[in-house]
């Protein structure tokens, strides 16, 4: 009998599962708290349950667990980069960062990615598979246990396109922010997308209070297509209209991520065009000097160019920030460490 994975079940689903097995509803809630609050890796740890119940649970269910393969710690800022092995042998990566406002974990939503963005190492080998809600949660849980510090913010901005795995993403958010678990506020959860319009529109109907981040990276479709193949499928007017819908439905301002790539999208004319594009849009721009990806041959502009780009936006009434670079000395960008590991493994 194939065991059912239990960590991906919401508290309602787990309660119904236990009731169907003849147990009282509160047992489902107890198991849920052991898994998602106490971060138990096995049924043996759940000492409030009888030995017979623990035995039955072990026979029928499994608790998904990630195995740490490698942990790199930045000597510059303490950022930690994790490689985790999934139960099927696939490898994913996550990042832990400390800020003044708390600690943040950037997680992957897929093994690899099929979006093909030229500035991202995650796409170099294509998409392997989607991650289960449990496998997304485990990245947060394992990192919290390893660091001994409570995770306060979660960013779904690692390998993969979250809107390409939307159902599992929604279950992950519900478990992460709901009762009986880590109780991470939805306002402290950010989901990044390269612009999958149907996914953005569906997300806007879910009644969530998470932050939506759009990977914009170009002030028009022509420039954007050079960096993001998906731009050929969803043109900017359609994408921005979906973002506007998200704001109207949720009241949450959108973050527009803009990776600055030398000689591609970093000219003052691009900044002026970006300001015109985003005029009246509820959100702010997060400028990101691109992390060099050796296989792509891309490089970042110098600091003076970055500051000049930001100044043009601000003078045009667009709120803009420059992302603080974290973990540069440990392959901090999406997909870099995993790619290096897979190449060495052969």
SSE layout and pairing:
Blueprint: E1 4-5, H1 11-20, H2 25-36, H3 51-60, E2 61-62, E3 67-73, E4 80-85, E5 91-99, E6 102-107, E7 110-112, E8 127-130, H4 133-147, E9 153-156, H5 166-177, E10 189-193, H6 197-204, E11 211-215, H7 221-227, H8 236-250, E12 254-260, H9 268-278, E13 283-289, H10 303-315, E14 320-322, H11 336-345
Parallel strand pairs: 1-2, 6-9, 9-10, 10-11, 11-12, 12-13, 13-14
Antiparallel strand pairs: 3-4, 4-5, 5-6, 7-8
Description:
There is one protein chain. With 346 residues, the chain is of the alpha/beta class. The protein is 36% helix and 20% strand. The protein is built from eleven helices and 14 strands. The strands form three sheets. Strands 3-4-5-6-9-10-11-12-13-14 form a ten-stranded mixed sheet, sandwiched between helices. Strands 1-2 form a two-stranded parallel ribbon. β13 (283-289), α10 (303-315) and β14 (320-322) form a beta-alpha-beta unit. α4 crosses α5, α6 packs parallel to α8 and α9 (268-278) runs parallel beside α10. The longest helix is centred in the middle third of the chain and has 15 residues, at 133-147.
Please describe the structure with a list of short key phrases separated by commas or semicolons:
346 residues; ten-stranded mixed β-sheet; 11 helices; alpha/beta
């Amino acid at each position: 009998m194939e065991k059912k994975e239990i960590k991906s079940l919401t508290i309602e689903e787990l309660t119904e599962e236990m009731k169907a097995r003849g147990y009282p509803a509160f047992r489902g809630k107890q198991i849920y708290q052991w898994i998602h609050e106490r971060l138990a890796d096995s049924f043996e740890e759940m000492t409030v349950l009888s030995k017979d119940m623990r035995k039955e649970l072990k026979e029928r269910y499994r608790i998904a667990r990630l195995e740490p393969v490698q942990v790199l710690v930045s000597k510059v800022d303490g950022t930690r980069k994790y490689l985790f092995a999934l139960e099927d042998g696939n490898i994913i990566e996550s990042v832990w960062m400390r800020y003044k406002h708390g600690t943040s974990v950037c997680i992957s939503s897929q093994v690899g990615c099929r979006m093909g963005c030229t500035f991202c190492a995650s796409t170099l080998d294509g998409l392997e598979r989607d991650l289960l809600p449990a496998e997304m949660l485990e990245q947060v849980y394992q990192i919290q246990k390893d660091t001994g510090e409570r995770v306060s913010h979660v960013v779904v901005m690692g390998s993969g396109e979250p809107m390409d795995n939307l159902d599992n993403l929604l279950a992950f958010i519900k478990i992460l922010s709901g009762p009986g678990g880590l109780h991470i506020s939805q306002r402290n959860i950010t989901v990044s997308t390269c612009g999958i319009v149907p996914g953005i529109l569906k997300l806007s109907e879910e009644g969530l209070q998470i932050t939506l981040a759009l990977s914009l990276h170009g002030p028009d479709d022509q420039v954007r297509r050079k960096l993001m193949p998906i731009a050929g499928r969803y043109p900017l007017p359609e994408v921005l209209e979906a973002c506007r819908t998200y704001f109207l439905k949720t009241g949450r301002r959108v973050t527009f991520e803009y990776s600055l790539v030398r000689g591609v999208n970093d000219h003052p004319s691009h900044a002026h065009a970006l300001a015109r594009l985003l005029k009246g849009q509820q959100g702010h721009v997060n400028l990101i000097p691109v992390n060099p990806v050796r296989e792509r041959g891309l490089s970042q502009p110098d600091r003076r160019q970055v500051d000049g780009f930001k100044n043009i936006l601000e003078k045009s009434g667009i709120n803009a920030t420059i992302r603080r670079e974290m973990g540069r000395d440990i392959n901090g960008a999406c997909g870099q460490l995993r790619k290096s590991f897979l190449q060495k493994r052969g």
